[in-house]
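Memo subject: From amino acid sequence to discrete backbone structure tokens
Action wanted: Derive the backbone structure tokens from the amino acid sequence.
How to read it: Take the token row as a discrete description of the fold.
Attached in line: The record itself begins immediately under this heading.
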Amino acid sequence: MRFNGLTANDTTAGDLPAPEFSALTAAAIHAMEELKAVDIRQIDVRDRTSITDLIVIASGTSSRHVKAIADEVLKQAKAIGAVPLGVEGEREGEWVLVDLGDLIVHVMLPRVREFYGLERLWSLAEEARQGNQDAS
């Protein structure tokens, strides 16, 4: 399985525990692909925040689909020994956040995803950070 150049057997840059992180990322993305999540994107935020290392964002076609995708991510993560730190939004099913520590997964309805624009938010944060470095 390969997603944006990352497979379960690849190592990652930085000080991450590569095998565990790669396996967790691969398991989460595999779960999303299995349930036909739409527009899966990953954002490496290691140099932008201390909250997490990677954010994965995907869309579901309905509230039921969003919940099912998030449930499958949880199931696959637990199957490889990951302990979820929290899950938010399952009841409503418009936006479910699965916190796996070094990996945070957002599964959203397309209209919610467009409204909150997480990809845009994180790209603006990167632009601001680079602008601050250039000014120094």
In short: The domain at 18-135 is CATH 3.30.460.10 (Beta Polymerase; domain 2). The longest strand covers residues 38-44. The two ends are 41 Å apart (CA to CA). The beta strands are 38-44, 54-59, 86-88, 95-99, 103-108.
